[in-house]
Automatic annotation (TrEMBL):
<dbReference type="GO" id="GO:0007031">
    <property type="term" value="P:peroxisome organization"/>
</dbReference>
<keyword id="KW-0472">Membrane</keyword>
<dbReference type="InterPro" id="IPR006966">
    <property type="entry name" value="Peroxin-3"/>
</dbReference>
<feature type="transmembrane region" description="Helical">
    <location>
        <begin position="15"/>
        <end position="32"/>
    </location>
</feature>
<protein>
    <submittedName>
        <fullName>Uncharacterized protein</fullName>
    </submittedName>
</protein>
<dbReference type="Pfam" id="PF04882">
    <property type="entry name" value="Peroxin-3"/>
</dbReference>
<dbReference type="GO" id="GO:0005778">
    <property type="term" value="C:peroxisomal membrane"/>
</dbReference>
<keyword id="KW-1133">Transmembrane helix</keyword>
<keyword id="KW-0812">Transmembrane</keyword>
Length: 123
């Protein structure tokens, strides 16, 4: 009958190799599981970040469309008002009429009056 000591002496190297292979396999399995967990966590974070970016893009698009609608409504009215005000402020027809009268009737305007009308018209 074999004793434990004889068994150990005969199979010691095989036991060490077997324990080493099994331990290494277990360690690799745990490292792979940790790596897989890390990748899944990273994918989850990227999905959340992508959803956040999509939400921000949608909000920006809605804001742009809102501003576009407001400008489409108010800008033509404002441009019309501005055009009317500019026309009122820059009404030069009376200066032109006096210059045309002075040209048709040479003695109605003096040279200094003509120069004054031209300078006001240029301004």
């Amino acid at each position: 009958m074999l004793s434990v000591r004889d068994f150990w002496r005969r199979h010691r190297r095989k036991v060490f190799v077997t324990v080493g292979v099994l331990g290494s396999g277990y360690l690799l399995y745990k490292l792979y599981g940790a790596q897989r967990h890390g990748v899944q966590e990273l994918e989850r974070e990227l999905a959340v970040q992508r959803e956040t970016e999509d939400l921000m893009k949608a909000q920006m698009q809605a804001h742009f469309e809102n501003i576009q609608k407001m400008s489409d409504v108010t800008l033509p009215h404002a441009m019309h008002e501005l055009s009317c005000r500019i026309t009122e402020e820059l009404d030069l027809s009376h200066l032109l009429e006096r210059l045309i009268q002075g040209k048709g009737q040479p003695n109605t305007l003096t040279q200094s009056e003509k120069l004054d009308l031209w300078s006001r018209l240029k301004f």
